[in-house]
TrEMBL record:
Protein name: RNA-binding protein 48
GO annotations of cellular component type: spliceosomal complex
Similarity section: Belongs to the RBM48 family.
Superkingdom in the source lineage: Eukaryota
Length: 222
């Protein structure tokens, strides 16, 4: 029974037996758009057959189509992308149709799934235990980090050298004005005078401390 168009799609898990390269597409507008529908499904893989199913029950002014893919993977991808998608104003309802499979189709489907599972097991078993698949990336990231640090040091050295050689970054003598404003130049001059006084006071204190002789304690001990 086709589900109602306003009914939300239920979450369902499909096994390999439920999946099939045969699909049934419902709620297709009755506009003679079979070729457009075949082209739409053909974008997901080779389509061997796309024909209307007149014997199927459907809503008024809609058709049901039978789509046959050459591979199960293509049918799975098409169902995942096109189910509940809008086609000419209607939401398509795509379902698997494993009842149309022959014995050979079922055998090929199961054999393909067996090979896929074995391939996954071998790939997981070939990886050494305790190693991460992102270890090469981590090693490259550490190498890139070391290279970035080297580039940063070289860049800072270049900037320092350019500042020394650039006349714009040269020191301004104390007897010249640095700012265009007189008040700011006066403030700078006052700060320089205080710094010079502090420096000269420190030099004098160190000189006097060096010139002083050590005092001798001549007091009598009892």
């Amino acid at each position: 029974m086709p589900r109602d168009r306003d009914e939300p799609a239920a979450v369902r898990v499909y096994t390999v037996c439920d999946e099939s390269r045969y699909l049934i597409v419902r709620n297709v507008p009755s506009l003679g758009c079979g070729d457009d529908l075949a082209n739409l499904f053909g974008t997901y893989g080779p389509v061997e057959e796309c024909t209307p199913m007149d014997a199927e029950d459907c809503e008024p002014y809609t058709d049901v189509f039978f789509v046959k893919f050459s591979q199960v993977n293509n049918a799975r991808f098409a169902k995942r992308k096109l189910d509940e998608s809008v086609f000419l104003g209607n939401r398509l309802q795509v379902t698997y149709a494993p009842q149309f499979e022959s014995l050979l189709d079922t055998k090929e489907k199961l054999e393909a799934r067996r090979k896929e599972v074995l391939g996954r097991i071998k790939s997981s078993a070939g990886r050494p235990e305790g190693t991460s698949q992102y270890s090469p990336a981590q090693g490259s990231s550490s190498g890139n980090h070391h290279q970035l640090n080297s580039n940063k040091r070289a860049y800072m050295k270049t900037i320092h050298t350019s500042h020394i050689e650039d006349p714009r970054f040269s020191h301004v003598p104390s007897d010249k004005d640095y700012f265009p404003s007189e008040s700011m130049n006066a403030t700078v001059k006052l700060v320089r005078e205080k710094l010079d006084k502090i420096q000269s006071g420190g030099d004098n204190s160190s000189t006097s401390a060096a010139s002083k002789k050590p005092r001798v304690d001549n007091r009598r001990r009892i």
